[in-house]
């Protein structure tokens, strides 16, 4: 129980998030995008570089499960988009799942989701750069893609980004080309029989899941529509409709492309890392406009995707830095509002990943982290209150299970390496918070009382000789019939975020001299922890004696509060989520009063 000392409760609303809409907060924002504009943004976000290379990578992993894997990836993308839409309706803070998890789960999972997103999207940028290399200059190595990343980073730092108009242009060019490509492939006879591919072999479950995870890379960008919010006119109608229409169009197009490419390339698809260009050559001939435009269209799609990703990842990194989850170095912005330091570091990381050279492996790194990111998004949905939940809880658990299943069967070293990187990142965060907690313990100069030690109560004489100033405050917790004070009419307190409990706060510079004596006075029924006390002057960290719900004994972790602190960071719900859980449990106890109701006088 002493681990609670290192997880002080916060207010019901998260530090940066809010469940209210911007309109509710009196902020007027222009609605400039209609249904068609939202669809164009979704198409431009999804139909990017991935579609030009992913068929080769997925087919190499599972020939017999080729089409089934594409269908499974489409289902996962649809479930993830559903989850993000339900979360984005309630929280409009930048950061996506990172911000949603901070509100509905806890800061530990929020950090893991945000870090996975940043790392995964760096992998996406590197994978797209390798795709750019494959189409533009396959014999030169990773240099062209690295140069493209460097130049696009400078473009983003200068404040130039993709707009709705640019999104529409990219969607029309790329989507239009691929539609004509697909129709032409359906109408032309194939040089290789579709049956040349090995569809008679039984489908391997690991291969199917691994191929689906790679196909998932081509669906990246589907959540962009869900996060548009008030940028769309009539968002409650247009955003869900745009999501459904965009996903439907993309899924139909991808299945058409998958069929045409396999129809003409057959088993040689395993060796062709530029399948669209090779298929265009076979379908239309080497002097046709479709073949001549294959490389420019692929290059344009790659550059547009990298430009958008660089902007999105740097801004998520800046939000995390503002929350002290990443070094403050990343939060620094230039006069155009661009987090330029984050842009530079992310660009450098993407360039380093391109040196790996294996496109399938780099796509795997990206897919693992992004699937993990969305699995945390589904977890956040399960913690939403019933009245705010758009996605049913069972569907969120199912979506989370699908994300985890795909992530664990990604081919190559992506799974162990990515899990190791996430583990190291979480460990560094734990060390930082643990160190900060130790410093906080040394700097606490206040103590809060809610029972017999308050002014005017029977045991106040135990603290009346401590010189300092008294004030009123509240903590987020719940009163339970526990501890020796309960027999005297003062129930014990647990800090679980349930509701405000009034306390009396004593601030004193000589407090440390009296803590051992107070520990002995309170006895084994209570333990001293740090709480955040809300006062008129602001939030004050203070010692409190909370009821010990388990007997004091030696921990099986070797007495290490540090281990318990790490476990607490994973499983401790946020204050807002604790309130939701307790409220729902009380609704199930029909006719029974809540614990604190018993002690109201």
Q: How does the major sheet shape up? A: 5 strands, mixed
Mean pLDDT: 79
Summed up, the domain count is 2
What's the helix-strand series?
Answer: HHHHHHHHHHHHHHHHEEEHEEHH
- What is the number of helices? 19
* Low-confidence residue ranges: 1-31, 553-565, 589-601
Explain briefly what this protein structure is:
The protein has helices at about 35-45, 55-60, 65-90, 95-105, 105-135, 145-155, 165-185, 205-215, 225, 235-265, 275-285, 290-320, 340-355, 360-380, 395-410, 415-445, 515-520, 560-570, 575-590; strands spanning about 445-450, 470-480, 490-505, 525-535, 540-545.
Q: Could you give the topology of this structure?
A:
Layout (H helix, E strand, L loop, with lengths): L34 H12 L7 H8 L4 H23 L8 H8 L2 H30 L6 H15 L6 H24 L17 H12 L6 H4 L8 H31 L9 H10 L4 H34 L17 H15 L4 H24 L10 H16 L5 H30 L2 E4 L19 E12 L11 E16 L7 H8 L3 E10 L2 E10 L13 H11 L3 H14 L13
Parallel strand pairs: 1-5
Antiparallel strand pairs: 1-3, 2-3, 4-5
Descriptive keywords:
single chain, 601 residues, alpha+beta, Hypothetical upf0131 protein ytfp
Descriptive account of the structure:
The chain starts with 34 loop residues before the first helix and ends in a 13-residue tail after the last helix. With 601 residues, it is of the alpha+beta class. The longest helix is centred in the middle third of the chain and has 34 residues, at 289-322. The chain has 19 helices and five strands. The protein folds into two domains: 31-426, Amino acid/polyamine transporter I (Up-down Bundle), CATH 1.20.1740; 444-553, Roll (Hypothetical upf0131 protein ytfp). The protein is elongated and about 95 Å long. Helices cover 55% and strands 9% of the residues. Strand 4 (526-535) and strand 5 (538-547) form a beta hairpin. The chain has helices spanning 35-46, 54-61, 66-88, 97-104, 107-136, 143-157, 164-187, 205-216, 223-226, 235-265, 275-284, 289-322, 340-354, 359-382, 393-408, 414-443, 515-522, 561-571, 575-588, and strands at residues 446-449, 469-480, 492-507, 526-535, 538-547. A five-stranded mixed beta sheet has the order 2-3-1-5-4, with helices on one face. Helix 5 (107-136) packs antiparallel against helix 12 (289-322) and helix 14 (359-382) packs across helix 16 (414-443).
């Amino acid at each position: 129980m002493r681990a609670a000392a290192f997880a002080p409760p916060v207010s019901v609303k998260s530090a940066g998030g809010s469940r209210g809409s911007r309109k509710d907060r009196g902020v007027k924002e222009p609605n400039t995008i209609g249904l068609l504009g939202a669809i164009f943004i979704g198409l431009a976000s999804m139909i990017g570089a991935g579609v030009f290379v992913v068929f080769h990578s997925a087919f190499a992993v599972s020939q017999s499960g080729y089409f089934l894997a594409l269908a499974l990836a489409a289902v996962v993308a649809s479930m993830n988009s559903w989850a993000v839409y339900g979360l984005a309706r309630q929280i409009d803070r930048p950061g996506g799942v990172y911000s949603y998890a901070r509100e509905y789960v806890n800061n530990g999972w929020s950090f893991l989701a945000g870090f996975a997103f940043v790392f995964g999207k760096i992998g996406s940028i590197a994978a797209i750069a390798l795709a750019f290399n494959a189409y533009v200059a396959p014999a030169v190595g990773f240099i062209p893609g690295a140069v493209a990343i460097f130049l696009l980073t400078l473009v983003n730092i200068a404040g130039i980004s993709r707009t709705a108009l640019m999104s529409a242009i990219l969607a029309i060019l790329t989507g239009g080309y691929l539609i004509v490509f697909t129709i032409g492939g359906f109408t032309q006879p194939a040089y290789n029989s579709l049956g040349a591919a090995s569809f008679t072999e039984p489908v391997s479950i690991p291969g199917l899941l691994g191929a689906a995870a790679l196909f998932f890379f081509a669906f990246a960008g589907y959540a962009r529509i869900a996060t548009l919010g008030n940028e769309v006119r009539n968002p409650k109608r247009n955003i869900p409709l745009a999501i459904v229409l965009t996903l439907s169009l993309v899924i139909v197009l991808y299945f058409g492309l998958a069929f045409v490419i396999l129809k003409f390339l057959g088993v040689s698809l395993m060796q062709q890392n530029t399948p669209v260009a090779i298929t265009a050559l076979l379908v239309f001939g080497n002097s046709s406009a479709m073949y001549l435009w294959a490389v420019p269209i692929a290059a344009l799609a790659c550059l547009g995707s990298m430009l958008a990703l660089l902007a999105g990842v740097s801004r998520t990194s800046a939000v995390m830095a503002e929350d002290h989850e990443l070094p403050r170095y990343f939060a620094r912005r230039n006069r155009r509002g661009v987090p330029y330091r984050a842009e530079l570091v992310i660009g450098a990381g993407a360039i380093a990943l391109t040196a790996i050279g294996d496109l399938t492996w780099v796509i795997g790194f990206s897919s693992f982290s992004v699937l993990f990111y969305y699995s945390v998004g589904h977890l956040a949905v399960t913690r939403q209150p019933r009245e705010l939940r758009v996605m049913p809880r069972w569907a969120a658990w199912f979506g989370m299970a699908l994300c985890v299943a795909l992530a664990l069967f990604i081919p190559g070293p992506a799974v162990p390496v990515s899990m190791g990187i996430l583990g190291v990142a979480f460990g560094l965060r734990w060390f930082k918070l643990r160190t900060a907690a130790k410093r906080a313990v040394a700097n606490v100069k206040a103590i809060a009382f809610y029972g017999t030690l308050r002014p005017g109560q029977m045991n106040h004489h135990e603290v009346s000789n401590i010189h300092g100033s008294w004030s009123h405050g509240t903590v987020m917790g719940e009163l339970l019939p526990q501890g020796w004070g309960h027999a005297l009419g003062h129930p014990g307190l647990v800090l679980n975020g349930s509701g405000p409990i009034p306390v009396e706060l004593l601030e004193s510079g000589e407090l440390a001299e009296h803590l051992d004596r107070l520990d002995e006075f309170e006895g084994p029924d209570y333990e001293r922890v740090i709480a955040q006390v809300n006062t008129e002057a602001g939030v004050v960290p203070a010692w409190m004696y909370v009821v010990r719900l388990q007997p004091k004994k030696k921990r099986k972790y070797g007495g290490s509060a540090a281990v318990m602190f790490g476990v607490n960071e994973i499983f401790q719900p946020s204050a807002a989520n604790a309130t939701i859980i307790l409220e729902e449990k009380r609704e199930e106890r029909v006719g029974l009063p809540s614990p604190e109701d018993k002690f109201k006088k």
